């Protein structure tokens, strides 16, 4: 019994999970990623795929920024979780049109 | 107190005095505030560095305040010692004065920035362009997410970007402990439905009828609350980036029971106020905010139910709360941050502050931009925020660890050059930052421990060469010299209550192994120090702990290197440290291997058996390689090998540098120039003029 329990974590740690990256416009890109892989890799891959500079977009998981050193394991991500992508924001004041 | 004295000369004398007056204390900290005319580069930087120094003093004094409470708790059990109480009360007084000086200086400084916009504009432009050079310890990114590109958006007339806004919202709200600050991406995800443009709000029916939105919101808010370590909150601040070009904000205040939208744009507000309430621009947003307020109330307090839309609602709503307007097209981001500052400090945005208030809005927020930029640069970043302590960014050998009370700095100078040895204690010991910049270049530290050590092996008595001689010189002559230099520095500053502990690396290997060059000789000679500690006069500046280090590297070892490091660390324990102040300690850590008869024979046997094994493996590998060649063809290999033997060992004499003598040579030149780089970040002519005996 106790042996079985001990065997589960290593399997879990290496098992890849599916992650959905959703842009502000609703476009979805799916990634399969190991739980120990750094998410910076995923960020780079996504930016490449959509043809944007990785510095001009922000990745959020549950509203919190994802930093370069985070991994799915460190963020407690689960299978089929969603990462939101936001475009950088600036503001100075041109009156809103509406 | 020595630590304090090293920061603030004169403070320990002051502390011995009974009941120091305010004037006595404040002269220690006096910082002149420059007027607009004098607000130039030099005064600005000297002022900011003095302010950061003051902040550091306050940190240290705050430790003293905790000390005071501890002492007061202990006092009833002992016979009272008034001198301690005088000193401790003096410390408290000093802290009060330091805080009040900090307050007045800062507000005077900020007022100057606000009053003389042109001067601050110039200063801001200069700061933005030269910050990278001025703060070379910062690296490519200032904080985790803010890098130099984002920093530049704080510049004159720039549009501020989300990283800056989010950084300050999170930082200030974490400090405030009553305001929950949401990220600027929060409204994109939860309140608006138009792909990040933030102009079309979810209708109230969509919000109420949709459980997924509510679930998403709760999950998010719980996380931000945890991130900002809030048990509960009175206000929620939401920065909003409307239409991708305008920053404004909303604030839900549970205590005052109101929801306000703060927008610094004049025309929008004035035209909007003329319209009937149901046609006003922010009506939809206000409905969404009401929904938000109701939902967040659930996590704010488990018992309180907030009904905003019912008849009970005694809440007030202002979709265009009265705020100072921006008379330009670039300051809305700074205004938005300032709204938050007001909310945290005053509870609401107050546009009617008089001209002397440090939080008042100005026509051009350039003074605020300068403050924000400076705050960002002074960020408490690992390991230390003080520009004087930037050394660690330069060299891997000087690593800093931040501990609860102070910094531990580990430094590994190479004790070869006499000039360098004399300079090291001078570099480490401190002087006041109120002196000239040149005198300030030292690291402001005291030496706690000295741990010498260098390997040496492979030489019999007929093979004593320059390397053995150098190692001997480092381990013996120069070790004694640096002890002398440290003693001299300490004695001249009268640091008599704070001895430096020297861990002497002794060895049981007095020629037992052989083949060790002059190693045993230098080790034995170190043992004379134990007698000299008592017979000579440096006992109160230095204390000795001799560690007889056993075999950690050889094939037959008694401890692993890590275990031995732990043992040595034990010698630095305060308990043993206090013993060494009474008499030197001799710690035998070698594990008893020197007791073995025929040690050399035994180790030779072990060594030779290992060598035999490795010879065998090598032969097998050679065999395998031969097999491989025959199986896979040998043409290119043979061609190469026919040429290469002729070139083996051949060097181009025109490109060879011949080094005579000894000294440290590294990327920063000699040890002396390396110290300059570590301490100040720049070379000086004086450094270059020093004789570099090594090169």
From TrEMBL, chain A:
<dbReference type="InterPro" id="IPR029071">
    <property type="entry name" value="Ubiquitin-like_domsf"/>
</dbReference>
<protein>
    <submittedName>
        <fullName>Small ubiquitin-related modifier</fullName>
    </submittedName>
</protein>
<dbReference type="Pfam" id="PF11976">
    <property type="entry name" value="Rad60-SLD"/>
</dbReference>
<feature type="domain" description="Ubiquitin-like">
    <location>
        <begin position="15"/>
        <end position="92"/>
    </location>
</feature>
<dbReference type="InterPro" id="IPR022617">
    <property type="entry name" value="Rad60/SUMO-like_dom"/>
</dbReference>
<dbReference type="InterPro" id="IPR000626">
    <property type="entry name" value="Ubiquitin-like_dom"/>
</dbReference>
UniProtKB/TrEMBL annotation, chain B:
<keyword id="KW-0378">Hydrolase</keyword>
<dbReference type="InterPro" id="IPR003653">
    <property type="entry name" value="Peptidase_C48_C"/>
</dbReference>
<dbReference type="GO" id="GO:0005634">
    <property type="term" value="C:nucleus"/>
</dbReference>
<feature type="domain" description="Ubiquitin-like protease family profile">
    <location>
        <begin position="144"/>
        <end position="343"/>
    </location>
</feature>
<dbReference type="GO" id="GO:0016746">
    <property type="term" value="F:acyltransferase activity"/>
</dbReference>
<dbReference type="GO" id="GO:0016929">
    <property type="term" value="F:deSUMOylase activity"/>
</dbReference>
<dbReference type="InterPro" id="IPR016039">
    <property type="entry name" value="Thiolase-like"/>
</dbReference>
<dbReference type="Pfam" id="PF02902">
    <property type="entry name" value="Peptidase_C48"/>
</dbReference>
<dbReference type="GO" id="GO:0006508">
    <property type="term" value="P:proteolysis"/>
</dbReference>
<keyword id="KW-0645">Protease</keyword>
<protein>
    <submittedName>
        <fullName>Cysteine proteinase</fullName>
    </submittedName>
</protein>
<dbReference type="GO" id="GO:0016926">
    <property type="term" value="P:protein desumoylation"/>
</dbReference>
<keyword id="KW-0788">Thiol protease</keyword>
<comment type="similarity">
    <text>Belongs to the peptidase C48 family.</text>
</comment>
<dbReference type="InterPro" id="IPR038765">
    <property type="entry name" value="Papain-like_cys_pep_sf"/>
</dbReference>
């Amino acid at each position: 019994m106790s042996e079985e329990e001990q065997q589960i974590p290593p399997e879990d740690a290496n098992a890849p999970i599916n992650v959905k990256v959703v842009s502000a416009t609703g476009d979805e890109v799916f990634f399969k990623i190991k739980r120990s892989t750094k998410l910076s890799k995923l960020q780079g891959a996504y930016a490449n795929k959509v043809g944007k500079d990785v510095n001009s977009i922000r990745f959020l998981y549950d509203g919190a920024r994802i930093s370069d050193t985070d991994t799915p394991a460190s963020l407690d991500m689960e299978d089929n979780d969603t990462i939101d992508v936001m475009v950088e924001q600036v503001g100075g004041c041109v009156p809103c049109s509406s | 107190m020595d630590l304090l004295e090293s920061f603030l000369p004169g403070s320990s004398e002051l502390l011995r005095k009974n009941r120091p007056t305010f004037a006595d204390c404040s002269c220690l900290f006096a910082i002149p505030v420059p007027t607009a005319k004098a607000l130039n580069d030099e005064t600005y930087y000297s002022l900011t560095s003095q302010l950061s120094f003051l902040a550091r003093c306050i940190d240290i004094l705050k430790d003293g305040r905790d000390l005071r409470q501890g002492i007061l708790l202990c006092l009833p059990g002992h016979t009272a010692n008034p001198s301690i109480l005088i000193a401790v009360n003096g410390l408290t007084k000093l802290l009060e004065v330091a805080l009040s000086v900090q307050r007045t200086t800062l507000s005077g400084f900020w007022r100057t920035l606000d009053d003389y916009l042109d001067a601050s504009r110039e200063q801001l432009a200069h700061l933005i362009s030269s910050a990278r050079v001025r703060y070379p310890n910062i690296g490519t990114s200032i904080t985790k997410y803010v890098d130099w590109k984002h920093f530049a958006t704080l510049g004159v007339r720039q549009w501020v970007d989300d990283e800056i806004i989010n950084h300050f919202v999170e930082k200030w709200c974490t400090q405030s402990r009553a305001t929950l600050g949401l990220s600027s991406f929060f409204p994109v995800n939860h309140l608006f439905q138009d792909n990040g443009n933030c102009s079309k709000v979810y209708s109230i029916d969509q919000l109420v009828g949709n459980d997924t939105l509510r679930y998403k919101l709760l999950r998010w808010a719980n996380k931000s609350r945890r991130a900002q370590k809030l048990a509960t909150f009175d206000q929620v601040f939401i920065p909003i980036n409307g239409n991708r070009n305008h920053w404004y904000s909303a604030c839900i205040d549970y205590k005052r029971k109101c929801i306000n939208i703060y927008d610094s744009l004049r025309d929008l507000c004035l035209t909007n106020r003329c319209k009937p309430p149901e046609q006003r621009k922010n009506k939809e947003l206000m409905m969404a905010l009401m929904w938000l307020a109701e939902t967040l109330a659930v996590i704010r307090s488990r018992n309180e139910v907030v009904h905003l839309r019912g008849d009970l609602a005694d809440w007030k709503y202002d979709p265009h709360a009265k705020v100072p307007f921006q008379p330009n097209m670039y300051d809305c981001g700074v205004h938005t941050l300032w709204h938050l500052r007001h909310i945290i400090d005053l509870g609401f945005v107050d546009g009617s502050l008089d001209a002397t208030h440090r939080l008042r809005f100005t026509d051009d927020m350039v003074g605020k931009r300068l403050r924000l930029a400076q705050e960002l640069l002074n960020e408490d970043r690992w390991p230390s925020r003080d520009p004087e302590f930037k050394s660690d960014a330069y060299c891997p050998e000087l690593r800093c660890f931040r501990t609860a009370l102070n910094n531990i700095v580990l430094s590994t100078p190479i004790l070869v050059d006499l000039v360098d040895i004399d300079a090291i204690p001078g570099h480490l010991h401190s002087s006041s930052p109120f002196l000239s910049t040149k005198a300030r270049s030292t690291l402001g530290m005291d030496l706690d421990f000295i741990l010498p050590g260098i390997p040496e092996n492979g030489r019999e008595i007929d093979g004593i060469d320059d390397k053995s001689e150098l190692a001997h010189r480092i381990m013996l002559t120069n070790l004694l010299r640096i002890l002398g230099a440290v003693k001299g520095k300490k004695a001249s500053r009268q640091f008599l209550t704070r001895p430096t502990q020297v861990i002497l690396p002794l060895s049981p290997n007095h020629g037992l192994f052989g083949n060790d060059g002059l190693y045993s000789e230098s080790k034995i000679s170190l043992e004379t120090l134990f007698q000299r500690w008592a017979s000579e006069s440096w006992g109160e500046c230095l204390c000795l702990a001799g560690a007889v280090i056993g075999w950690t590297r050889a094939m037959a070892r008694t401890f692993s290197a890590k275990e031995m490091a732990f043992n040595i660390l034990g010698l630095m324990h305060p308990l043993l440290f206090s013993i060494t102040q009474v008499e030197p300690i001799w710690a035998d850590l070698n594990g008893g291997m020197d007791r073995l008869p025929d040690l050399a024979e035994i180790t030779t046997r072990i060594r030779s058996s290992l060598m035999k094994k490795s010879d065998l493996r090598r032969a097998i590998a050679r065999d395998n390689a031969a097999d491989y060649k025959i199986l896979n063809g040998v043409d290119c290999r043979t061609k190469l090998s026919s040429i290469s033997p002729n070139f083996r060992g051949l060097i181009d004499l025109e490109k060879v540098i011949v080094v005579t003598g000894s000294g440290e040579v590294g990327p920063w030149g000699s040890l002396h120039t390396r110290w300059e780089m570590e301490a100040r970040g720049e070379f000086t002519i004086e450094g270059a003029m020093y004789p570099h005996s090594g090169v």
